[in-house]
Design a protein that fits this description.
about 0% strand
């Protein structure tokens, strides 16, 4: 979390969770950067709507 909100995923935590769930690390490493971009765009878009007074 940065001063303006979330700045990215904690990849260490994501990999620990993936290990616990039996997810392939190489597959996750391939997919995770694109997923992070999408998640951050969604969070930013949602935050912008809240700033406008919308739910």
């Amino acid at each position: 979390m940065g001063p303006m909100g979330p700045v990215g995923l904690d990849f260490g935590a994501v990999f620990l969770m993936a290990d616990a769930l039996g997810v392939s690390r190489p597959a996750l490493a391939e997919f995770l950067p694109a997923a992070e971009i999408g998640l951050m765009r969604g969070i930013t878009k949602r935050s912008d709507k809240k700033d406008d007074g919308q739910p």
